[in-house]
Design brief:
Helices cover about 70% and strands about 0% of the residues. α3 crosses α9 and α9 runs antiparallel to α14. It starts with a helix and ends with a helix.
């Protein structure tokens, strides 16, 4: 077999249906809405609008959020059709494996894996920092050795981060439906905190804080500020917030009636998230001039205290800490299903694709957990966070282009889904171009780290995956039969 035919060998979708058929289908639309909202509307809704406004956009942060939402929406349509047609574990990895071939599926999946490893560690660290900040006024303080990552400010291990990541893994290991019930409750609590901030903050809005809505462009130490250049820089920062809908697709093998459940979960959660992000941005800018949010780690609390609502600020920030568990649950479920898919297909060691006695992919779950804990312990997040958006955007581009290959096979060897991307063939092309444009707007370091991660993925594929994949063994078995 030629090299090109080897790397483009495509998996039969019936194989994934059979392999993933052992996973328990227990998740409903409400579970996926909670999973999506919980992952998309994570810590960033309480921090990012103020940070982006101060660094790049001024009041026009709202425009940046809308543009980022449009880009995410274009890709979400493609995700919805893919998930409805091919409800397999592993989302983009499995889909691209079917429509483009093994190598391209590995690249898309490897890009997503960076998101899950790093985002899980990142949210765990953020939850730890906020939790310790809440305890400080009570006189409770952990020593520096147990509060920071190794080698950072005298730290050895961030104990709280380790504990919460392991706690979430223990919850998920007992079943996706049980984790979904906890997720649903926490998402309701989080949305309540967001709405409380919006309604209380609205009473203190000053129209003057929105003028000028788009400040004049100039360069700062942080890059572009003001004008459309600043808005574009804001989009690249904000896009990270919207990528959580991939966590829904990764669990599609556990969906009840995925033809309807997946499109409603993916598109519905994104719509809810967009509305909440825009509302929070408008209130934040209205309550205080955007300059006040520079270098503030808690702009929502700052705004509420400035409006003389210190008690509400304490309530919102307390719920925000608890609400961070929703992102940890969503990322852990999605990341473990992706690793399970790699093991299922032999791209990584087979034991990662094994299910336990209750048909749960817990080998993959605990592998994800251990790696995330180690990443959080030893690597600085300024370095790692750059990889999250870059890796996900690469997968988004693959999925957008994959719709063209999918359409040729729908109704043949792939079921004809009840949901399809509207305005085909224009919308998938727009999704690809928009994702590419946002990727180009990322800073140099993001692209450099994505390149390093990509090279590492290539080494693993050519040294291990290409030789040990189930498709390689299938071809090898056929060749042996032919020789006999």
């Amino acid at each position: 077999m030629s090299f090109w035919k080897t790397i483009t060998r495509k998996e039969d979708p019936r194989v994934y249906n059979k392999k993933d058929g052992h996973l328990v289908r227990s998740l409903k639309v409400r579970d996926f809405l909670a999973l999506g909202v919980g992952t998309i509307v994570s810590t960033s809704i309480f921090t990012l609008p103020g940070e982006v406004a101060a660094m790049h956009t001024g009041p026009a942060v709202v425009i940046s959020f809308i543009i980022a939402a449009v880009v995410a929406g274009l890709v979400a349509f493609a995700y919805a059709e893919m998930a409805a047609a091919m409800p397999f574990a592993g989302s983009a990895y499995s889909w691209i494996n079917v429509v483009f071939g093994e190598f391209f599926g590995w690249v898309a999946g490897w890009a997503l894996l960076a998101e899950y490893f790093i985002a899980l560690a990142f949210v765990g660290s953020g939850l730890s920092a906020n939790f310790r900040a809440l305890l400080a006024p009570l006189g409770l303080k952990l020593p520096a050795a147990l509060s920071n990552a190794f080698g950072t400010d005298g730290g050895i291990v961030d104990l709280v981060s380790v504990l919460v990541i392991v706690l979430v893994a223990a919850l998920i290991s007992r079943g996706a439906s049980r984790a979904a019930r906890v997720e649903n409750l926490l998402v309701i609590l989080k949305v309540f905190a967001i709405l409380l901030f919006i309604f209380v903050g609205m009473t203190a809005i000053k129209a003057a804080n929105f003028t000028p809505f788009i400040p004049q462009y100039h360069e700062t130490a942080n890059g572009a500020f003001g004008g459309w250049q600043g808005i574009y820089a804001g989009v690249s920062m904000i896009f990270l917030s919207y990528i959580g809908f991939d966590s829904i697709a990764a669990n599609s093998a556990e969906a009840i009636n995925p033809q309807k459940t997946m499109p409603r979960g993916i598109l519905g959660s994104l719509l809810i998230a967009v509305i909440l992000f825009i509302a929070v941005s408008l209130v934040l800018i209205g309550v205080l001039p955007y300059q006040e949010y520079a270098n503030s780690a808690e702009p929502v609390g700052l705004a509420l205290r400035a409006a003389h609502h210190g008690g509400v600020a304490a309530v919102v920030q307390s719920i925000a800490v608890v609400g961070m568990f929703t992102a940890l649950i969503g990322m852990s479920m999605a990341g473990s299903r992706l690793i399970y898919s790699f093991g299922r297909d032999g791209m990584l060691p087979k034991w990662l694709g094994k299910l336990d006695s209750s048909e749960r992919p817990n080998n993959a779950l605990w592998t994800l957990t251990i790696v995330a804990v180690l990443i959080g312990a030893f690597f600085p997040f300024a370095f790692l966070s750059q990889l999250i958006s870059a890796g996900t955007l690469i997968a988004f581009m693959f999925v957008s282009l994959g719709i063209y290959a999918l359409r040729r096979r729908e109704g043949k060897d792939i079921p004809d889904p009840s949901f399809k991307v509207p305005f085909y063939p224009v919308l998938p092309a727009l999704g690809f171009l928009a994702s590419l444009l946002v990727f180009m707007g990322l800073d140099y370091q993001a692209k450099l780290y994505a390149g390093i991660w990509f090279i590492l993925g290539l080494i693993i594929y050519f040294v291990y995956g290409m030789r040990h994949s189930t498709m390689a063994k299938k071809v090898g078995g056929q060749n042996d039969g032919e020789k006999q």
